[in-house]
Specification:
Blueprint (H helix, E strand, L loop, with lengths): L4 H16 L9 H11 L3 H14 L4 H17 L3 H14 L11 H17 L3 E6 L4 E8 L7 E6 L2 E6 L4 E5 L4 E7 L5 E6 L4 E2 L32 E2 L16 H34 L7 H36 L6 E9 L2 E9 L1
Parallel strand pairs: 1-8
Antiparallel strand pairs: 1-2, 2-5, 3-4, 3-6, 6-7, 9-10, 10-11
Helix pairs in contact: 1-4, 2-3, 3-4, 4-5, 5-6, 7-8
Length: about 350
Amino acid sequence: MVTSRPLRRCLVALVAVALSAPLVARADSPALAEARLAIRQVKYDRAQARLVEALHEGGHRPAELREILQLAGTTAIVLGQREVGDQYFRQLLALAPDAALPAGVAPKLRDAFVAAQAAMAALGRLTAHARIDAGGALVVEVTADPLHQAVAVDVVGGAAGDRRPLQAGRAAGPTPTDLTEVRVLDSYGNQLVIIAADVIERQAPPPAAPPPTAVATPAAIAVPPLAGAPGPTDGVGPRSAPPPVERPRWRRWSTWAIPTVVGAGVGVGFAIGAKAARDERDRQLGEPAGQFSDAYADAVAAAEDRQLISNLAFVATGVIAVTGAVMVLTWQPPARVTTALRVDADGAGVVVSARW
């Protein structure tokens, strides 16, 4: 592919600025180093291949990953791969919304980057949150992931790491005693977000419940009943209030009022439509030879159809309204039947009472 000299110079300037920025990354990625060299030599096909290789090898810290995404997007745009470049720029902006291209880049690059910024302004950025719950478990939640980049987390304690997959954007497990940081990873193991241990929220355990206090129960004193005196169970025992009886749903006025109003609205709407169709029919009839036109026939048919629907809607509304009125007005709560045990001097029995 042939690339214009001004565009190549802009790309070289862009890469020079990118390479001059300090990196907080692992030692050196050979593939990324080769990609930088290929861009300086204006060998964009080779640079693109090395950048893809660097992305797939994984393990990059956030700053190095953002450099790879920016260079990959820029190289793809220069090679005429606008959609590929847009995807790389969007991934970059999901991680760093404040990312920007150096001033003075070619309009082709600037337009693609601005379009990606507009798209990600609507979608938002990737965000993650970590907390240690009251039970001591470490809970990591990816609260927003517009491009579905996050797939796992690394829980780093001392020199060891514990990789945990994300399920529905969440991972939970034990908290290491020497926790240093939590890393949110993409499918290649690149670090999208790093959460330091000192910013992780820690929830206090619930306060311990006080021990139960023993309460002495007074001993029952048996008192023999007096001869001829009524016992404590004389008469009808106490009755609990019966629960209120709820009106069934199909016996409520609101159940029938809604379809009645809807039916009346449909009838009125189609009646208005039928009137408009008749007016159009009369207007066509007043035109020379208007009764022979297709518009006249359409107006006649529309008036008849709409009037028929209106009539049916009014009939259905009347049926619903009458049925609803009968259902609401004829309802009576069911009888309430209660029973109680009665014990008196004549003997014992059961008292049954009913109330309507």
